[in-house]
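quick one before i forget lol
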Amino acid sequence: DRESPPAPGSVCMLGSSNISMWTTLAEDFPGINVLNRGVGGCRLADLADFAPRLVAVARPRVIVVSAGANDVAAGNSTDVIRDDFLRLVARLRQDLPDVKIVFLAIAPSIKRWEQLEQQQAANAAIRAAVEAGGPGLAYVDVSSALLGPDGTPAPECFLDDLLHPSTIGNARRAEMLRPALLKMLEE
């Protein structure tokens, strides 16, 4: 059985395993047609290479990009990570010139807590590029959804692998992301 194509105007969640493993998108984003196009293990460069094929049939109005943690873990520099994101944006806009693109900031995890400084540097570089990139680009940081009162990753927000968000973590991320998506869909 082939999956029928989603209705145009959807929100496409594009990213690494933190998206592919998000199985509660329909519950977390009620009333929004959300499509999961996560690919475990991918980096921003990978997405730039094959994302147009992942989203072409969906013709989404908004694409949420949630990747970059694997880039940091691989030791990519901040400049390379930012440039790969910008290449991804350019590739997506070749086929979808009016699509709105949201970068969901690289979020900390228990397993990769020691990479926090590099993650924050990559986030800052991408945020600056988004702010300079003109209309239709947005940067949303929902990292605090996964942190406890002490500012460290909250165990209940992660699966047993200590890396990927749990149902609780995803619900908290969605609560913070939902207003930005609704605003973009209304524009």
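fyi The longest helix spans residues 167-186.
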